[in-house]
Design brief:
Layout (H helix, E strand, L loop, with lengths): L2 H19 L5 H32 L2 H8 L4 H14 L4 H13 L4 H14 L1 H12 L1 H26 L1
Helix pairs in contact: 2-5, 4-6, 4-8, 5-6, 6-8, 7-8
Length: about 160
């Protein structure tokens, strides 16, 4: 069992105890919320993980390594960032795709740049959610911060990995 799994199990047990001892909360209600979330998320997560395995098998490692591998440096990080900003995917698929890219010789700093750009400047989210829900001013600020912070994150990632 991985350390992450142990931490998540411990957190779930700790939170269950907190709900159980809280005089105004019901464990049955919390379990019902958890069940509804699982019913919604599991059908999305399983195909995403399976798809990532197929992506990993289809990706040519030599090309991934050349374009966004550890030796591609800052240029590769910016290529990965552009990919992250344009990747039309939700949170259930991005991490399995990044895992597939890492297994196909992508660099860690480059994947940090991809994830940062995906979180801060993803075109799909900006157009479908941020702009209509948050308005133009906040969307422009968020995108601008992504443009500024993504290269900084890439440089920091490259410094840490080196």
């Amino acid at each position: 069992m991985s350390v992450s799994a142990i931490i998540l199990i411990a957190a779930a047990l700790g939170l269950a105890i907190l709900v159980w001892v809280h005089p105004e909360r019901k464990l049955s209600e919390a379990l019902g919320i958890s069940r509804r979330q699982a019913i919604f998320l599991i059908p999305v997560i399983i195909p995403a993980i399976i798809s990532a395995g197929f992506v990993a098998e289809l990706l040519p490692s030599e090309e991934i390594g050349r374009w966004v591998g550890a030796d591609s440096g800052f240029r590769g990080a910016m290529i990965a960032a552009a990919f992250g900003a344009l990747m039309p995917t939700g949170p259930m698929l991005i991490l399995p795709v990044v895992a597939a890219l890492l297994s196909a010789d992508a660099g860690q700093a480059q994947m940090l740049a991809l994830l940062n750009a995906w979180m801060m400047m993803n075109a799909q989210r900006l157009l479908l959610f941020d702009l209509p829900l948050a308005g133009g001013a906040l969307t422009i600020r968020r995108f601008t911060m992504g443009v500024i912070l993504t290269p900084i994150a890439a440089l920091l990632g490259l410094a840490v990995v080196a």
